[in-house]
Model the fold of this input.
Amino acid sequence: MSCQLETIRLQLRLSQIKDTQILHRLWTNDQIRYFLFDNRIISPDEAQSFVEDSLTNFEKHGYGLWLIFKRNIDYLVGFTGFLDSEEGIPSLIYGVHPDYWGYGYATEATSAVLSYALEKLTFPKVRADVDEPNIASVRVLEKLGMRKTGREVINEHPLLYFEKLRSQKVQRSCLQEIA
Done:
């Protein structure tokens, strides 16, 4: 399946099995894993399982994990995309290598996949959760127009929940296309 997305500065492509090693390196970075995996170092097999699940989700639902690259540079900036949920509502996830923090790449790339899910796949809404102390990620979600819907403490980690609804304008245009 080919589903590449582009922004002004970035290229996003589906994660593949061959990407497992570079993703594992990113996901085990001290600063990334702190919030992503509650500071747990995942194994290479777990990383491969995430990539395999992503590929399955692309086949079933049209979404999964994209890798983020600067245009015309083959160095991984980060990842963004969606995890499957039991409710059938995609759960937004993203992370950017610390060398690229502060440049707006997370917001730019995640905006592209959020638009893809709401406009192309016509999901009625998308959800996200973020560790409350992860102020940078909270700001990204707010910039994307996601609204806070709740707070919960799970395993002694405070989480904030966000969601974004597909706009009525998009819903009407999709209904017009079907008619």
Summary: Strands lie at 5-6, 10-14, 65-70, 76-83, 91-96, 125-131, 147-154, 157-165. Residues 170-179 have pLDDT under 50 and may be disordered. Residues 24 and 47 are 6 Å apart (CA to CA).
